[in-house]
Write a structure and sequence with these properties.
Layout lengths: L2 H31 L1 H12 L3 H29 L1 H20 L4 H29 L5 H26 L5 H6 L2 H12 L5 H6 L3 H11 L2 H20 L2 H6 L2 H17 L2 H5 L2 H7 L4 H29 L1 H25 L9 H18 L2 H12 L5 H53 L8 H15 L9
Helix pairs in contact: 1-5, 1-6, 1-8, 2-6, 3-4, 3-5, 3-20, 4-5, 4-8, 5-6, 5-19, 5-20, 6-16, 6-19, 10-11, 11-21, 13-19, 13-20, 15-16, 16-17, 16-18, 17-18, 17-20
Bound molecules: beta-D-glucopyranose.
Length: 468
């Protein structure tokens, strides 16, 4: 093989690995997004009580929290690729089961099963991408996960809109089986990540995988870096590591994952049509409004992919949260000062739509992708899967809390105070990022880990004092 063709085939392999590596994100997005429209029609068939209706929507979130917690340690034990394969099978079974459900109970069970897969994918997809990507573009490659999530949400909104006239909720839920099968077949041909292989002492296989997408020189360099980090990890007992230098990384990972939900993104992703109808939109206008929000979500994720390795993660997080807080504050205060609108040309209706849009612009270009990119980056290799399990569990539990309490807060406090409360959460998120999060752009996963160890041993007085 001459140099050009091998460079060409390396490029092709890379693209396939990134595409199938990220595809699980689309199922995450589709399965969480589709229910907002489907629930209207499920309600007609099964005449759900408010409690059962809540469970149909929320069972996926409970499943996802559990799925993430279990997938964490399993991805360290079985490998990242195998976990994605298991998730693909679960997605397929869940989609078909949900579509064929004869009763609300069976539907809730299968939504829970789909949740297990969503949680597993939310954890393994960013982990897989982060561990196969070259350092200089790791942010962009890992962001493909979020791009797929937003595309999945948009496709779900469009499918909901198209099928709304026939009320075909079984098709809305069942169509998810198609990307699930594509994921299963595609992922079967994709490699395991070199970093996981090295952690299982399978150096030859790791080298083979790297050589498919890197030059020989790059491959050897990366193998040496991974080995060095593994040697350092082995020097300290794992328990002691967990007690000292790993702790700050865990706090950052769990904090970012939880704040990503407590800033309130899913009050929009799951409830935008409800909010729009409350300020004078008709049902049809609300569905179009939601689709437009879905498009903005995808487009701004593309902007994030362009920015993340240039501007860095931390500036994006800080700028993004300022945008979200301002949008929420304007939205919240407008409810105190403006009269209840009667159609969508009233100032309150316009402000609601504009603030929802500026909020999503701010989230999609920053916190959406950046959090999923940073989780695997800040956590050390040996316990990366398990520790990510804790963070992703926190993300889904927080999502569950926010989406379950939002309708209650709206009726207890009204929209004004509710949105201002999320703005308050945003301010806490700003302080958290400003004081605790360190930039990870441009450093290899191994450098980040070595720096973390040095920094913590210095601050606790145990190391040689080498701080970066
Ligand atoms: C969040 C989801 C959210 C989605 C919106 C993801 O990063 O984790 O909860 O629905 O972004 O695009």
């Amino acid at each position: 093989m001459d140099n050009t063709s091998s460079a060409e085939s390396r490029g092709r392999t890379r693209k396939l690995v990134y595409f199938f590596g990220a595809l699980g994100g689309m199922l995450f997005g589709y399965d969480t997004g589709v229910i907002s429209g489907a629930i209207l029609f499920i309600n007609n068939d099964f005449s759900l009580t408010p409690f059962l209706k809540g469970l149909v929507v929320a069972s996926i979130l409970i499943g996802a929290a559990l799925g993430a917690a279990v997938a964490g340690p399993l991805s360290d034990r079985l490998g990242r690729r195998n976990l994605i394969l298991i998730a693909a099978v679960t997605f397929t079974v869940g989609a078909i089961g949900a579509a064929l459900s004869p009763s609300a109970g069976v539907l809730i069970f299968f939504r829970f099963v789909i949740g297990l897969a969503v949680g597993a994918a939310a954890l393994t997809v960013p982990l897989y991408l982060s561990e196969v990507a070259p350092t200089e573009i790791r942010g962009a490659i890992s962001s493909l996960n979020q791009l797929m999530i937003t595309v999945g949400i948009l496709v779900a909104y469009i499918v909901d809109a198209i099928l709304a006239s026939s009320g075909a909720w079984r098709w809305m839920l069942g169509l998810a089986a198609i990307p699930a099968i594509v994921l299963l077949v595609g992922m079967y041909f994709m490699p395991e990540t070199p970093r996981w292989l090295m952690s299982r002492n399978r150096e030859d296989e790791a080298r083979d995988v790297l050589l498919r997408s890197r030059t020989e020189e790059e491959t050897e360099e990366e193998i040496q870096d991974i080995k060095e980090v593994e040697r350092e990890e082995e020097e300290g007992a794992l328990k002691e590591l967990a007690a000292s230098w790993v702790r700050p990384a865990l706090v950052v990972a769990i904090g970012l994952a939880a704040f990503q939900q407590f800033v309130g993104v899913n009050t929009i992703i799951y409830y935008a049509p409800t909010t729009f109808t409350k300020v004078g939109f008709t049902a049809v206008q609300a569905i179009y409004g939601e689709a437009l929000i879905g498009v903005i979500n995808v487009v701004m994720t593309l902007v994030a992919i362009w920015l993340i390795d240039r501007l860095g993660r931390k500036p994006l997080l800080l700028i993004g949260v300022v945008g979200m807080v301002l949008s929420l504050a304007v939205l919240g205060f407008s409810h105190f000062f403006l009269p209840q609108p009667s159609d969508l040309t009233d100032p309150e209706a316009i402000i609601t739509f504009v603030c929802t849009a500026t909020y999503i612009i701010s989230f999609a270009a920053t916190w959406g992708p950046v959090v999923w990119v940073m989780l695997p980056e800040v956590l050390p290799l040996r316990i990366r899967g398990t520790a990510m399990g804790a963070a992703v569990f926190a993300n889904w539990v927080s999502n569950f809390i926010v989406s379950q309490t939002f309708p209650m807060l709206l009726s207890a406090w009204g929209p004004g105070i509710t949105f201002l409360a999320y703005a308050g959460m945003g301010m806490l998120a700003f302080l958290f990022v400003y004081t605790l999060v360190t930039e990870t752009k441009g450093r290899s996963l191994e450098q980040i880990e070595t720096d973390l160890r040095k920094k913590t041993s210095f601050s606790t007085g145990k190391g040689e004092g080498a701080v970066q």
